[in-house]
Amino acid sequence: MAIAALLSSVISPVSAVTDVDDTPNVSYTEQEPAKLIASGFTATGGLIYGGGYLEVSIADQTAEETLALRTVATPDTTDGAISVVGSSVHLGNGTTADVIGAIDSVNNGTNGKPLRIAFSSSFSNSGFEAGDGGLAGWTAFEDAVDLSGQLGRQRRRRSGAARRVHRGGQ
Fold it and tell me: Are 41 and 99 in contact (CB under 8 A)?
């Protein structure tokens, strides 16, 4: 079975993101452990993501399907490192890790819902500029964000036909 996520929207309070690239199909056998479905994708056209969000969904997603982010027990303090602890998304600054966003409590990727990451409105470098020391695990292209390997998906009980990635928006 091939599966893939629909990157349905990335919202910036300053300007809407104009392009989200396709992610490849991923083979998955029912009851397998979670698999990465977007080891890296690029969203372009936004200016500042603070106060905005990234939303990922699966085309024709059912209640048995779950989208999730890789999590760790403690935030990575390495300068530029992105880590997820519980529902908080952190950005390391070399000494500590600042919270830059959170997984939405309703659109949290469970029970067939999309996975939304809401970015805090007041975090440093909310435009993800490469000139701000760079961001490990993120690649900045003027106004673009690459979430290298942070998205994962788990499928619990459903079997069915192959699914294709396509673009969508709100």
Answer: no
**Own/partner long-range contacts of 19-23 (Cβ < 8 Å, ≥24 apart):** 19/43, 19/44, 19/45, 20/167, 22/165, 22/166, 22/167, 23/165
Which pLDDT tens digit goes with each residue over 132-156?
A: 444 555 554 444 444 555 555 544 4
What is the model's pTM? 0.58
Euclidean distance between CA atoms 25 and 6, whole angstroms: 11
Instruction: State yes or no: pLDDT of 13 exceeds 50.
Output: no
Contacts of 106 (CB under 8 A, 6+ apart): 113
Distance CA 48, CA 13 (A): 7
